[in-house]
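Dear colleague,

Following up on Tuesday's group meeting, I ran the structure prediction for the two-component complex that the binding team flagged. I've pasted the input sequences exactly as they went in, so you can double-check that nothing got truncated or mislabelled along the way. The structure tokens for the whole assembly follow below. Feel free to forward this to whoever is handling the docking comparison.

Inputs:
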Amino acid sequence: EIVLTQSPGTVSLSPGQTATLSCRASETVASNYLAWYQHKPGQAPRLLIYAASGRATGIPDRFSGSGSGTDFTLTISKLEPDDFAVYYCHQYGYSRDTFGQGTKLEIK
Amino acid sequence: QVQLVQSGAEVKKPGASVKVSCKASGFIFSNYDIEWVRQAAGQGPEWMGWMNANSGNRGYGQRFQGRVIMTRDTSISTAYMELRSLRSEDTAIYYCARYNPGAIVKDGFDLWGQGTMLTVSS
């Protein structure tokens, strides 16, 4: 199965700053079918980015995805208090999906 | 309202089985796959498998082969995930999510249920 490694494990930033989260795959992700989700305690995960760079419905343009092949990035600009959460990447291009272990974005 | 609503929390003993339901509303159930994902405390999500709501075709993650069964009842737009031979390591939150296999550009899991907490303990 494809292993997704996210870095850093935790990042501490202040509102207004820019967060850059990384997701590296052990093999090429087919069709760049790599998604990013935001997850807060007690809530369902929320789809942010699909197919590496497509923004899901209702997601502000402060969230952007980039990358291809094995290296992908989620960038969150002008951080707002509501953005502090855990972020997961997910590859769905292979017949067996896998998720990364997550990056926690915390307030500095 | 477009949503997936899951059944409530469960407490089971080791060796038992659990069946979690996921009821869809506000969209055409048969147009989607229903995926199941679980998350144990302090760990990342783990994909368990998928089922096409129209055909009933399904696929399971290797770790769950032989222990999980995914079914659906199209008359009530509900998907089910049954996990057997439970052990303590199965303690987790279980989520259903929808995926559109017919989309030209596949867009991931765009709608999730609220989660079902399963506790396996003697």
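The longest strand of chain B covers residues 18-25.

Cheers,
M.
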